[in-house]
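Sharing a chain and its predicted structure for anyone who wants a worked example. Both blocks are below, sequence first, tokens second.
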Amino acid sequence: MLKVEHVTKYYGDFKAVDDLSFEVKEGEIFGLLGVNGAGKTTTFRMIMGLLDYQGGKILLDGKPIDYSVTDKIGFLTEERSLLTKLTVKEQAIFFGALKGMSNKKILEKLDELLERFEISQYKDKKIKELSKGNQQKVQFIMAILNDPKLLILDEPFSGLDPFNIELFKDEILRLSREGSMIIFSSHRMDHVELFCKKLVILVNGKSVISGYIKDIKKDYRKMNIFLKGDIEKEKLLKIGGVLDVIEHADEWEVKIESSDIIEKVFQYVKDRKNITKFMVEEPTLNEIFVAKVGESYEK
């Protein structure tokens, strides 16, 4: 298990991370989210042992993280971090050696992963000769070459088309099933909801939301009703608890303050003609993120 307990990090007088706590269990995919500058990268670097911190502790399986355990960690950075003049094979040998792997093990694992990601033909190609999408595949392969016990993924789908996102998704889920602890960060909330059951959202280095996504959505209370048919927007807005009514291309979205308002809206539409859709949905994680982050900046 990874435990981050009351960790604080200063750069001079600037507090980059403020009393942050969370834990990630084996086989769990955990979301660490925030706007740019929220403290995510600093947190990743502290977990990796690349930065010291001024308060709290970070433990992997009950022990502080130092160079004796970093061989068990994989990190896919948001920025490209490949040596572009090396071939894919040379990059793997270099990276694997840093993780204490033998050449035999490196090449066996590389061949397996290149085949899985459908880029075996690029093994002896220089990184700079590959497309951005294939460079991202190689970068991901480097992050998991050592079968990491803890894997940190920062914007892993950058530059990928939908087909290749599915390849990455399958691999992330495989690693989770095999017991890897995974920290997943993305600005795409729909991607976060694909994988994560638990998350932390940072604003200015401080957690503003944490816990299980299902509980976060329940506590948020607000919901959305999607309607198709002939309705009068102004009459819907007069219903107590209706927050907004938005017209989309072929349907209406009614935002309500809680599930108690569903019946009121239903009573209005049940006598309307041509109502072909009445669907209640939980708020999206993106909606909650925007609302909660906005509230934090206003305080």
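Comments welcome. The domain at 223-282 is CATH 3.30.70 (Alpha-Beta Plaits).
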